[in-house]
Amino acid sequence: MAHTRNTRLAAALREVGWSQEQTAQHFARAAREAGAVELTGATRSHIAQWVRGVQPSGQAPRILCETLSRGLGRVVTPAELGLTTGESTGQQGPWSTDPLRALVDIGGKDLDMERRRILAGTAYSVAALTLPDAAWWEQAPQQARERRPLTPRTADAADVDSVREMAAFFSRRDQRRGGADGRAALVAYLRTDIATYLSGRFTTEQVRREMFTAGGEMAYLAGWTAFDASEHGLAQQYFALALRLAAEADDAPLAGHILRAMAHQAVDLHHTNAAVDLADASLQQGRYAQAGPREKALLGVVHARALAVAGRKDDALAACLRAEDDLSNARAGDDEPGRVWFFAEASLAHETACTLRDLGDLAAAEREFRRSVRTRRRQTFARTHSVTLGYLGAVQASQGSLEAACATWHQALDAMGGIHSGRARETVVQMRRSLSPFRRRGGDSAATALDARARAALSRVG
Length: 462
Fold this sequence. Notes:
- This protein is mostly helical.
- Among the domains are: 7-81; 99-250, no CATH class; 396-462, no CATH class.
- The chain has helices spanning 7-16, 20-34, 44-52, 60-72, 99-111, 113-120, 134-146, 157-177, 183-198, 205-228, 232-249, 252-268, 272-282, 293-309, 313-328, 345-358, 362-375, 382-398, 402-415, 422-440, 445-461, and strands at 154-155, 201-202.
- Strands 1-2 form a two-stranded parallel ribbon.
């Protein structure tokens, strides 16, 4: 049988500077460390066959990746080396994948323009929302502690602080400019610096946990910005990766934060049952109980939104009231994670308004949207401000107040300057749909002028 030369593997061997004989020796040593007795007798001829295009089987692709990762000082994946893997694990789906390999693999595809087009078109999978069992959560921290280092880097507390600073920068940029702006820089940092930190050594176990939390927050941001850019399949993959890193950090509130984002995405995509399941999960296993008041409020109000779309009115309203109480307990200077810096009265009012809108109480929803607009720092949160105004206009139009809706929508379009967001774009699409009946009825001049402006905005916002 003819084989196609594996040029990727050959290139990696040239980069690391090893002969096939040296590669075999390093591989055999890694196999012994992994307890893969059947691979400890690997020779130069095995490496030569793999370079010629014969696919290694069983644990060999994983061990070869670990061998070359150590030599290169960076994480490489089977896909990067042109290898397939036939290893099976007990837990299926995204939960069975080593997060460091997934980080490099997804990030590499996300940065490569040709492969990114395929990745961005990946379908959102409701089946993939089935969460791992309790044993998976319990085993994840120990598995992380036992993972063999793949790079020589030793991370300390200063490195954790550096990652947190970068997370704060990217989070603020997302709030100001939208998720479609600057994503490549975020993903590049995640795939290089974060991958190097997580695959190395740590000065203490506390530093390891904090670094995995910081890495999980960065992966979450990659997912959130993809979600905001309306690349839902890609966002789902990053959220799954972030959740695995949170589990390995044994950070229950971070896991709740990510599950909350997954529930938010499911609500927007009209997967009601999945949204409720994810929102319920965000409150379980210490995720809500161990969180600070600001994060508790965030988890609670998204839970309310999921309950609202499921038609559970009393439960949704009770969840909104609990979220109000939780946020009222937040104080300046509280020791809360940086990932909830954005969540304050304006954000709570926005999510509460969405809950009331979905319950059919449009007058109350309008009051809450107005509260959100009134209390928000508009320049800092330009993207969310534009979306809130878009939603407010839609609620006004649904109540028959076209003049007020048009005035609000003009403000929304004003706020969208410089923003690149799929969610902001969707508010413009919905705006035009709402205006369509008025344009057809004889040409309302205000509606026609606003529609022309909205049409022009579509090419700039997405």
